[in-house]
Design a protein that fits this description.
The complex is a heterodimer. Chain A is 7% helix and 46% strand. Chain A has two helices and 31 strands. Chain A has helices at 6-24, 321-328, and strands spanning 37-43, 46-51, 59-64, 67-72, 77-79, 86-91, 97-103, 108-114, 121-125, 130-131, 141-142, 147-152, 157-162, 170-172, 175-178, 183-188, 197-200, 209-215, 218-229, 237-245, 267-269, 278-284, 290-298, 301-308, 335-340, 343-348, 354-361, 364-374, 381-389, 391-392, 404-406. In chain A, the strands form nine sheets. A four-stranded antiparallel sheet of chain A has the order 5-4-3-31, with no helix packed on it. Chain A has a four-stranded antiparallel sheet with strand order 6-7-8-9, with no helix packed on it. Chain A has a four-stranded antiparallel sheet with strand order 12-13-16-17, with no helix packed on it. The N and C termini of chain A lie far apart (70 Å). In chain B, helix 13 (284-314) runs parallel beside helix 20 and helix 15 crosses helix 16 (420-436). The relative contact order of chain B is 0.09. In chain B, strand 4 (370-377) and strand 5 form a beta hairpin. A six-stranded mixed sheet of chain B has the order 13-8-3-4-5-14, sandwiched between helices. The chains are: A mainly beta, B alpha+beta. Chains A and B meet through helix 1, strand 11, strand 15, strand 19 and strand 22 of A and helix 1, strand 9, strand 10, strand 11 and strand 12 of B.
Chain lengths: 407, 711
């Protein structure tokens, strides 16, 4: 048996300690000023670092600790709101206004404020009340509403998701419940007294619509995520990306398109309706000819994909089988850009060279950038270089609030 | 200290210099041990008399280079002049000389040439190593021995200890002790004691008893002392005829009886000898580790004590006995007792989960919304989970018929003992046994509020919300900002939920809302169980983080009062270990939802379909036909089945409450299923809830055992 001297033991013990520390992961990096990250703000007592090694152009709006921030390409991180529980910022096409959502316990409000700062203006409030049950044993109703994910159609028209008018939206035949699932609505800033206009309908029972975004250059088209269960068993979730004429409902005779269990959808499917298949959170390319989106690959894996859009207008006759087939064809040309445990909220850069997204690293959500380039021959996008972590927010990043990228 | 040996005057010249030209003493010794396996006779325990020559010859033949490099012949190696002589004595700083001397010391004590039974004073040197070491120290000197004046004078054969010895500086009170070589046992068989030596016993009057090499009877002639031929004794220049001078010095010392001139100089002083012996028995590193362990135990015990009580109050609970009144097990004891180790045999465990929110607490009882029977066959590693919907109508012993979730509540309120949890669990167990004939060996009850506290302590969870969650009638019994319960006056208040889809971080309250809402998806409790599983999986990840160790006391406190189980900590540990060995995908799951049960017309209960249930539970629980049972309730197509007494049911229907109409048609069948699931919100199976509760129980185990927490 080999014996070790005291000197060797003294040398070995620290090495063993360091090894154990490494194996246990004790002493992980929580310093924002190491490596490429420099602290740019402090939120909730935690530093928010920004990487100097992930260059980008323009401004990225996002929420940290439910406060609105803007990060510019000079790596300045400026706080725009404080203590308002803000989510989902969206910048108007002229770049002058920020629309965002303020959450409360039972409802949400939709507000706008100048991008240069200033007092927010409340566009519509979801405040309401509970009504006593209409009959014994029946649940109470409520006039509280949610508003979320504003999307500018133009500088005067704002779309959003909401359960607005839920009390007047029966779920369907044989069901006296209402459609709580948020649907896509729009309002005109010139006439805030008018009722919001329904833009996209929801399928009863699985969460409705999310992620509305108008097509660049063709703002009469809107894309969104549509949640539903399969019609046969109502047990398999189907999450699709749909493209729709934003005026289809308003231009159709009353009752043509319906919400609820017997929904008649005014949109065409860009992704197939396959049980348990989830394609979601689309974001337009600057030219509006591609979308980047997230596909749920497994319970522990998600992928960022890019697919082209149909070259012909498929929104005019959405319930035509041939049109639907045409709309689904580009899906087969989807290209996976990257994959990770969590990938969400992609947003395409104004110059089209990068995609920002949220992902999960070291138990924290952060904003990452990936450069993409399009093959001139095949027309397919591919990743260029490696993804770069832009923020080191130590848990401050609100991953359920989508970012917005402006020039 | 690293030593550099320089060869000179070698008798085996060609291999005396190490390849590197530099060796530490311990390297040399270690290499020698490793490179020179003992010859067979030595290994088999033959006396050293024949071993020396055997070893010498074999070592030369087999691994001469290694041996001579590692253990240079004493006669041919010396310390450089610039090295302190005393320090250079040790082949290794701490081990070889001490080991060898200590060995001699023990031999002196026993006055026997035999080696110690197991170890030398070096606690980590084996007997064969020591023999090896000694032999190697001796054997290289054989050629020198024959020509040494000492051996010539004594007429003996080759002596065993020929290494030149340079004692350390003597202390002021130093008195010469017998030369160490005199006590070396191998000498005895090799060479008869010199005349007169055997009777000269300097032990009793030796000035130093403790230094091993210096005491004990002299069984043979004094060790031949070659001394450092060049540097001389104590570093002084060696005078001409130094060997003769040394002998004269020994003989001239009269201080020590038994020696003509007192004992030879010691290698160590008495004080050093004590330290050396202690050091050899307990090396510094060993002592340090032991001290750290002891300190860790003391400190750990101090910090663990506050929550050990919490854990102990949660485990080892009893279940009150309730007689069954019907069924094939009428009158049988339906309570859990100490049945020995939980997995020593086929085991059935009842898992109960309650929403321990304000209103149930206000009413003085908890409903058991989750009722799962887990059956484990440790021999075959079969695991089955029977999930019984909370809305299944059953016979509750002593309470008529009612929903299964009321059984725990009735027992809780029965005041049969002063332990409401034991009463609740006991009646729930009796209800399961009476209605299905399934014997229950153990139970675990978990309160949901404890679950959320654990989430908060773990720092929240990160989940991928599968779809938007909307609920207009979520119970407003917890303050979202503080996480505390609201006042009982508002216990039946409502709040609205809208949880955005996608990956996100959820704090404890948000996670509770996510797993608790029943009105946010068509698949009712199935979807709820999926959500629960998500949160539990993520929570498990959080709890596996190393820094969670610091949160253990808080986590234990979070569970205080929210976990009650009849299983012991040992049982839970066994269960946790077992759970890690099985493939969760192979777990046999059975949910007594449709088609094993049917909705009843008169109320929101479900009636069991016994024709399907009995064979299913026979198979899952390996029950014989006379044991498995099922008590039919009033037909699903008839009304009038008694339901749970009013006041104990706290069903919060959603705004999606539906009423089936006469227009229900074939097209409406799908809608019917939807409405059932949505409006009742609690009617369907909870298969993943089974897994969730198992995981929850597993987490309880993790909180109880530190080691398992960081696994």
């Amino acid at each position: 048996m080999k014996r070790y001297s005291r000197r060797e033991t003294l040398i070995l013990l620290p090495l063993v300690a360091v090894s154990v520390q490494g194996c246990l992961g004790i002493g992980g990096n929580t310093d924002n000023n190491t490596g490429n990250f420099k602290t740019k703000a402090t939120v909730g007592g935690k530093e928010v670092g920004v990487s100097e090694a992930a260059p980008f152009k323009g401004k990225i709006y996002l929420t940290l600790g439910r406060n609105l921030f803007v990060l510019n390409d000079q790596l300045q991180l400026n706080q725009l709101t404080k203590g308002m529980d803000v989510r989902d910022p969206a910048i108007s096409p002229d770049g002058k206004q920020i629309a965002f959502v303020q959450r409360f316990t039972d409802y949400a409000d939709l507000l706008v404020m100048p991008t240069s700062g200033g007092k927010p203006q409340r566009l519509i409030s979801g405040n309401g009340q509970y009504f006593p049950p209409v009959a014994q044993g029946a649940p109470p109703n409520t006039s509280y509403y949610w508003f979320g994910q504003p999307a500018w159609r133009d500088n005067k028209t704002l779309a959003f998701v909401s359960d607005f008018n839920k009390l007047n939206t029966p779920a369907g035949l044989g069901i006296d419940a209402f459609v709580l699932d948020p649907q896509v609505w729009q309002i005109s800033l010139d006439n805030l007294q008018a009722n919001p206009q329904l833009v996209a309908t929801a399928h009863y029972g699985d969460g409705g619509d999310r992620d509305p975004a108008f097509r660049p250059g063709q703002t009469n088209q809107i894309i969104y995520t549509h949640y539903k269960y399969d019609d046969k068993t109502s047990t398999h979730q189907i999450i699709q990306i749909e493209l729709e004429d934003a005026d289809a409902i308003v231009n159709s005779p009353s009752g043509t398109y319906r919400s609820g269990a017997d929904e008649l959808n005014p949109a065409v499917d860009l992704t197939p309706a396959v049980n348990d298949l989830a394609n979601m959170t689309p974001t337009w390319s600057p030219q509006g000819d591609y979308i980047a989106y997230i596909r749920r690959l497994s319970s522990t894996s998600m992928g960022l994909y890019i697919m082209p859009l149909p070259t012909t207008d498929v929104t005019k006759n959405p319930n035509d089988a041939a049109t639907q087939q045409l709309a689904l064809q580009p899906y087969n040309k989807s290209v996976q850009i990257l994959t990770s445990e969590f990938v969400s909220q992609p947003v395409w850069s104004p110059d089209g060279t990068q995609i920002a997204y949220y992902t999960y690293n070291e138990n924290y959500f952060d904003l990452w950038l990936v450069s993409v380039t399009k093959d001139a021959k095949t027309g397919q996008y591919k990743m260029k270089g490696k993804p770069q972590q832009l923020t080191h927010a130590l848990g401050n990043l609100d991953a359920d609030s989508r970012p917005f990228w402006t020039p | 200290m690293k030593r550099q040996f320089v060869q000179f005057n070698t008798s085996r010249g060609q291999n005396n210099i190490s390849p590197s030209g530099e060796h530490t003493a311990e390297e040399a010794s270690a290499q020698a041990r490793e490179a020179a396996p003992l010859p067979e006779p030595y290994a088999s325990g033959q006396k050293k008399t024949g071993l020396l020559s055997n070893y010498a010859s074999s070592s030369q033949q087999e691994t001469p280079h290694s041996i001579q490099q590692a253990e240079p012949p004493a006669a041919s190696w010396a310390i450089r002049d610039d090295e302190p002589p005393a320090a250079s004595w040790a082949i290794r700083d701490d081990a070889p000389p001490a080991a060898s001397w200590a060995y001699v010391d023990e031999q002196q004590t026993s006055i026997t040439p035999e080696l110690p039974a197991e170890r030398f004073t070096d606690p980590f040197m084996r007997r064969d190593e020591a023999e090896d070491f000694l032999a190697k120290r001796v054997s290289p000197h054989e050629s020198a021995i024959e020509h040494s004046p000492f051996t010539q004078n004594r007429g003996g054969g080759p002596g065993p200890m020929q290494r030149p010895q340079q004692p350390p500086p003597r202390p002021a009170n130093y008195v010469q002790a017998p030369p160490p070589a005199q006590q070396r046992p191998p000498v005895q068989p090799m060479r008869p004691p010199a005349q007169g030596w055997a009777t000269q016993q300097p032990v009793s009057s030796a000035p130093f008893q403790r230094p091993g090499p210096m005491q004990g009877p002299v069984q043979g002639p004094p060790r031949r002392y070659n001394g450092p031929p060049q540097t001389g004794y104590m570093g002084n220049p060696a005078p001409a005829g130094w060997q003769q001078q040394r002998i004269s010095m020994v003989l001239s010392n009269s201080a020590a009886p038994g020696y003509v001139n007192g004992p030879p100089p010691s290698m160590y002083s008495a004080k050093e000898g004590k330290a050396a012996r202690k050091k050899k028995r307990f090396p510094v590193w060993f002592t340090a580790i032991a001290a750290v362990l002891v300190a860790g135990i003391v400190v750990g015990g101090y910090f663990a004590s506050p929550y050990i009580n919490i854990v102990s109050s949660s485990t080892g609970q009893t279940a009150t006995h309730f007689d069954t009144t019907t069924g094939k097990n009428k009158g049988s004891a339906a309570q859990t007792t100490n049945n020995g180790p939980i997995l020593s045999k086929r085991t059935n465990i009842l898992l109960l989960g309650s929403d321990t929110d304000t209103k149930t607490e206000f009413e003085g009882a908890y409903l058991a919304q989750t009722d799962i029977v887990v059956t484990i066959d440790p021999a075959t590693k079969y695991v089955g989970m029977l999930s019984i919907p909370r809305d299944l109508q059953v016979n509750i012993p002593g309470n008529g018929t009612g929903k299964l979730d009321a059984a725990f509540s009735f027992g809780y309120q029965s005041k049969k003992t002063n332990n409401p949890y034991a009463d609740g669990a006991g009646l729930a167990i009796a209800t399961i046994e009476e209605n299905f004939g399934i014997p229950i060996d153990a139970y675990a009850w978990v309160g949901l509020d404890g679950f959320i506290k654990v989430i908060n302590t773990a720092g929240g969870v990160d989940v991928d919300v599968t779809h938007p969650m909307i609920d207009d009638t979520y119970p407003n019994d917890i303050n979202a900002a503080t996480g505390q319960k609201v006042s009982t006056q508002n216990a039946y208040g409502l709040k609205r939920l809208y949880i955005a889809p996608g990956p996100q971080h959820l704090n404890g309250v948000e996670a509770l809302e996510y797993v608790r809402t029943r009105h946010s998806d068509l698949v009712g409790d199935f979807g709820r169980s999926v959500r629960q599983q998500q949160v539990l999986d993520q929570l498990k990840v959080k709890l596996e983080q190393p820094d969670i160790i610091a949160q253990l006391p808080q986590l234990a406190n979070d569970l205080n009062g929210y976990v009650k189980t009849s299983m012991s900590l040992t049982d839970l540990a066994s269960l946790g270990n077992f759970a890690r060995t099985i493939n969760t995908g192979s777990i046999d799951r059975l949910v007594l939802g449709p088609p094993y049960s049917e909705p009843m017309k008169s109320n929101t209960n479900f009636a069991p379909v016994c024709d399907k249930i009995i064979p299913a539970i026979q198979k899952m629980f390996s029950l014989d036909a006379n044991t498995a049972t099922c008590i039919p309730q009033t037909s699903a197509n008839t009304a009038g089945v008694a339901s749970m007494p009013s006041g104990t049911e706290t069903n919060q229907n959603s705004t999606m409450t539906s009423t089936r109409t006469a227009e229900a048609s074939a097209q409406a069948m799908t809608q019917l299923a939807r409405t059932n699931m949505m409006s009742m919100g609690n009617s369907h199976s909870d298969p993943l809830g089974v897994q969730s509760l198992l995981d929850l129980m597993f987490m309880v185990v993790l909180e109880s055992l530190d080691a398992m927490t960081i696994n």
